[in-house]
Structure formats: C-alpha cells, structure tokens
Design brief:
Blueprint (H helix, E strand, L loop, with lengths): L1 H9 L6 H34 L6 H50 L2 H6 L2 H46 L4 H8 L1 H38 L1 H6 L3 H26 L2 H23 L3 H42 L21 E11 L2 E11 L4 E5 L6 H7 L8 E6 L2 E2 L5 H6 L1 E4 L10 H6 L7 H10 L3 H6 L17 H15 L3 E5 L7 H15 L3 E5 L11 E6 L2 E6 L1 H7 L1 H20 L1
Parallel strand pairs: 3-8, 3-9, 6-7, 7-8
Antiparallel strand pairs: 1-2, 1-4, 4-5, 9-10
Helix pairs in contact: 1-11, 2-3, 2-5, 2-11, 3-5, 5-7, 5-11, 6-10, 7-9, 7-10, 7-11, 10-11, 15-17, 17-18, 19-20
The structure holds adenosine-5'-triphosphate (ATP).
Length: 587
C-alpha cells in the first residue's frame, strides 16, 4: 500500500532501465552468492578440504578456488550493482529536480509569498534527494533481498532435509513475527519524525537564504549576533528532530539482530541435542543468518519508504499546488496587442475581508501614459500587477484590446507587457545577456541599440569587457541607476506595447535621474504606460493621473484638472513638492 504512493515516480527509471537492469542482475548474482553460496562453501568445501579424503594437487586448488569464486561473484556483483544503481539514481534525481523546478516556474506569485525561499530550496534540493535514494534502493532491495532470502531459505530446507531435521525451518519461521513487529511499529513512528526533520531542514535553509539576501541590513543594524543565534537555534531544532529519526531508524537493525541471536541459540541447542556434526551446524547457522539479513534490509526498506513518504508529501505540495492563475482551456493567441486596458468593476483581496481594490473601473487607451498616485497602501501596485496576471482579480473583469485577459494565453499576455521594476534585478551573467532577457535571440547590434535608447551605452562601453562584462549576483556590482537603465534597455528590446513602470522610491543622483527620465520618455512613446508614481517629478509626462485611496480610484484627470479639484491629490502633491524642495536645498 505504501509502495502505491510511489508508483507514479518509478517511471523516472524508464530512461535508465538498461543501467538499472544491469545493476539489478549484478545485485541478484551477489545475493545468490551470499544467500546460498556461503552456506554451501561451509557445508561442502570446508569439510572436503579438511577431511581425511581431501583431494590433492590441482583438485585441492580447484576445490579451494570455489571460495574466492563465491566471494568474487558477491564482491563484483555488489560493486556493479552499487555503480549502476548510483547511475540510475543520479538520473532520477536530475529529472525529479528539473520537474519540481519547472513546476515552480509555473506557480503564481502568491505561492512564493506563502512559502519561504529557503523552505522551497530545501524541497528542491533535499527532499528530491531523499525520494531518489528511496526509489532506487527500494526497487533494488525489493528484488535483491527476496532473492537472497529465497536462496538462504532453499539452503536451509536442503540442509534440513539432508540432516533429516525440520526444526531449523520451524525456528526460522517462528522468529518471523519477531522481525515484522518492530518493523511496523518503528515505521509508523518514523514517518512522523521524518516529516518534522524535513520541515526543520527547510527552516534552517530559510534563515540562510534570508540572511544572505539581506546582508546589507544585517551589517547596517549590527544584527550579526542576532542572526547567528537565530541560525544556531534553527540548527539545534533540526538537530533534535533529526536525532529522533535516527533513534527510530537505527533501532531496527539491533532489534532484528536480537531476534537472530535467540534463533541462533535455539538452533545451536537443537543441533547439540540432536548430535549434528559441527560443519553442518556452521552451514545451518550461516543459512539462518543469511535469512535474517534480507529481513533486516527489507525492514530498512520499509523505514526508508516512510521517511521518503514525508519528502514525497513535501514535493507533492509543489507538484500538485493549485495554480491560482490558471491558463484558459482554449487560450487565445495574441502575440501583438495594441495596448488598450479596461478594468470593469474589479475587486481584489490578498486576504479575505481585507480588500486591496474595491470595484475599480478604469479605461486606459492605446498609447496613453497613466500615472497611478495615492498614499502608501492605496492599491497602486496591486492595480498594475493584475494586468500581467501576477494575480487574478477576485471579482470583475480586466480586458486587453477588448479581450478578457483570462482568455489570452499567459505566454502571449506577458509577452505584451514590459516591467521596469523599482529594484531592477539583474542576473549573474553578461550585461548583453541581461539585456537579452527582453528578446533571447537578439543580435549584439540590437542589444547595443536598446542600450543606447536606454542611455546605458556609455557606462557599459566604459567597462573593460563592455557588453560581455559579467555581473555579480542580482547585479550588485552596478549602481542603482545603472541597473535601472539596463532594465529599461530590456524593455526597449522586448518592444512590448504595455509598460508597467514601478518608479524607484530611492533618490538617484541628478545625472542618473536625468538619464533615466530621458530613457523613460523615449520608452513611453507609442506605448501604453502605467507609472506607479512614488515621486511626482515623473507624472508631468503622464497624459492622465489616476488617484487611488483605500483601494479605490477617487479621481482621474490631468495635473491641472486635479490640483484644484481633488483635495487628496493636492495634499500629496504639495507634500511631495515640499520634500523635493527641502531635498534640493540640502544638496
Ligand atoms: P506603496 O505606494 O506603498 O507601494 P501601493 O499603493 O502600491 O503602496 P499596494 O502594494 O497595492 O499599495 O497594497 C494595497 C494593499 O494590499 C495594502 O494594504 C497592502 O498592505 C496589501 N498588500 C499588498 N501586497 C500584499 C500581499 N502580498 N499580501 C497581503 N497583502 C498585501
């Protein structure tokens, strides 16, 4: 029953079935050599070469060679088995990770806000590893161990018949429940403990990833000690949770060995009472021991299945996560939109009972530049985020070029929208490839042309390696203004009809700001632009301003229309102007 849950994943072994089968057969050969080969060596070869009628010369060598042959089959078989199983296992791991990662690429933003980056990383890296180990070792053992068991039981039956004594078989059979019981009890405990340990592994990862991404804040606020203690605490909780899994996992082997020890004592007693010769006793004991070995390993299989079940739950949480922004059943292909946007009675809730937008209506014409202004938390970003379907409206309809966005293929929809975000995030790659994000097959001439339009060409060319300069992770080797211009170059290259511009809140130096202003003005020409305006310097170029307050659009018009008529707008504008004036006096 437990295996049934894993059955869909055994398919990952298909592409490496040849390696897997080689490994499996090698494992079976090793198993037969262990299960039957060793007892027979003890039963026949040892008495033969030590008896009075021991063969001589070549016959003796031949008889003795049987021992290394049995051991060689066991050793080579085990090695080939381990190598090919590792090959198959690594392939499964690669496929599994790729599948989970691909699924993460499809999931909506809300999923990433609900789950910490560190925990997701742990699921992609650690839980996949756990599952792959299980898939490979389980299949391997489920074939190999019963063969060993069969070989050993056959040897036992043969020896029992030969010595006309079936008590040995009865001993083996009677001790079976003694082995199965601990396997079951421990397995149940283990699945709970394993789940807890894997959650804690995720928590440790979260602390690391959060710390590294916020390293500037950690330094600036002297948080090193606090962070170290936080990490230590997370590690310690993980340590305690892991130790509990070890406690149960490692109890199984000694318990089965204890049962084995009693069985051996009983066998010895019966053998002595019945007056069986010492060689036969040794052979029977080896066969008996060889019966318990596979039982022990099958017990471990059950344990690792339980541990992997916990990992599987964690992976399926990603693999089966509901896409809250699903693709339409028959998505409409619209590779090139004109850029008209319409919100019809749109409401949006991040959390129940707390609307971020309430009954919003807006029509934005093709090529219109619209600034979204309003107090912090009024819903400006939320409004803009609904256009590329980062989230879906809870109520109401959004149309692009008169087509409901939910009907447009997500790929085409997002291909029609360029995002110039507040904090331009760049990848650890060359500057050229960072600009190519907008159009992966762009030639270097196209990249250079886009950089020129974004006023980024002069600073890029000043670098020793120019466009081939490699950036550090997140582009942290560039200034905020430079990053922003590369992000604008991406948008030029992408040439999408709709631009969402999240204006940087942090002030840039006057020169950088001027360059960005020029670049944005050029980018806005002929496109529909939504500017999430934090500073009012940008809105002078807007055709229209939408004023947001508490999730609603409370006014719409040009600056000259709004300033006298809308108190909120006038208030915000005056405050901004005052701040800007004070800032300019300071500099
Ligand atoms: P700002 O100017 O500060 O960026 P904004 O006008 O863009 O603000 P939004 O970011 O749209 O405002 O936020 C609107 C409301 O939704 C706020 O009350 C905010 O707290 C809430 N909110 C925003 N993002 C989330 C989220 N991911 N989860 C839950 N609530 C959110």
């Amino acid at each position: 029953m437990l295996l049934k849950r894993f059955s869909p994943y055994f398919g990952y072994l298909k592409p490496v079935r040849l390696q897997f089968l080689i490994g499996l057969f090698a494992g079976i050969a090793a198993a037969v050599a262990s299960g039957a080969g060793l007892p027979f060596v003890i039963e026949y070869i040892v008495p033969l070469v030590t008896s009075d009628e021991a063969p001589e010369g070549l016959a003796l060598v031949g008889a003795l060679l049987c021992i290394p042959i049995v051991f060689s089959v066991r050793a080579i078989g085990s090695y080939v088995n381990a190598y090919f199983m590792a090959h198959a296992g690594m392939h499964v791991l690669e496929e599994l990770r790729a599948k989970v990662f691909r699924r993460l690429q499809q999931l909506p933003l809300a999923f990433f806000q609900k789950n910490s980056a560190g925990d997701l990383m742990s699921r992609v890296m650690v839980d996949t590893q756990q599952l792959q180990t299980t898939l490979v070792t389980v299949v391997n053992r489920l074939v190999k161990e019963p063969v060993t068991l069969l070989a050993a039981v056959s040897a036992l039956i043969f020896l029992s018949i030969k010595h006309e004594n079936s008590v040995f078989m009865l001993i083996a059979l009677a001790s079976a429940p003694g082995c199965v019981l601990p396997i079951n009890i421990i397995g149940k405990k283990l699945v709970k403990k394993a789940r807890l340990a894997q959650e804690q592994a995720g928590a440790v990862n979260s602390v690391v990833s959060e710390n590294i991404s916020a390293i500037r804040e950690v330094r600036a606020y002297n948080l090193e000690e606090r962070e170290s203690s936080r990490f230590r605490a997370a590690c310690h909780t993980f340590f305690k949770a892991s130790l509990k899994t070890v406690k149960y996992n490692k109890a199984l082997t000694p318990l089965i060995e204890l049962v084995t020890a009693f069985a051996i004592v009983l066998t010895l007693y019966v053998s002595v009472v019945q007056g069986i010769e010492p060689e036969a006793i040794a052979a029977i004991l080896t066969a008996l021991y060889m019966c318990y070995e596979p039982v022990k390993k099958l017990g471990a299989v059950s344990n690792s299945l339980r541990a992997a079940e916990a990992s599987l739950d964690r992976l399926e949480y990603i693999l089966h996560a509901e896409d809250s922004v699903p693709e339409a059943a028959s998505p409409i292909s619209m590779p090139k939109l004109a850029g008209k946007i319409e919100f019809q009675d749109v409401s949006f809730y991040y959390k129940a009972q707390e609307p971020a937008l309430t009954s919003v209506n807006a029509q934005i014409e093709t090529g219109e530049v619209v600034a979204l202004v309003g107090p912090s938390g009024a819903g400006k970003s939320t409004f803009a985020n609904l256009v590329p379907r980062f989230y879906d409206a809870t109520q109401g309809t959004i149309l692009l070029d008169d087509t409901e966005i939910k009907q447009i293929s997500k790929h085409d929809l997002r291909g029609n929208v360029s995002l110039v975000s507040q904090e331009a995030i760049l990848f650890a790659d060359s500057i050229a490839n960072n600009i190519r994000v907008g159009k992966p097959d762009a030639t270097i001439e196209e990249v250079q042309a886009a950089a020129k339009l974004a006023h980024a060409d002069s600073f890029i060319e000043a670098f020793e390696d120019g466009y081939e300069s490699i950036l550090s992770e997140r582009g942290s080797s560039l200034s905020g203004g430079q990053r922003q211009r590369i992000s604008i170059a991406r948008a030029f290259l992408k040439n999408a009809p709709i631009i969402i511009l999240d204006e940087p809140t942090s002030a840039l130096d006057a020169e950088s700001e001027h360059q960005i202003q020029l670049a944005l003005e050029a980018l806005s020409k002929g496109r529909t632009v939504l500017i999430i305006a934090h500073r009012f310097s940008t809105i002078q170029h807007a055709d229209r301003i939408l004023v947001f307050e508490a999730g609603q659009i409370v006014a719409s018009g040009s600056h000259s229309e709004l300033y006298p008529s809308c108190d909120l707008y006038r208030d915000l504008y005056d405050k901004q102007s005052k701040t800007a004036l004070e800032a300019s006096n300071l500099t």
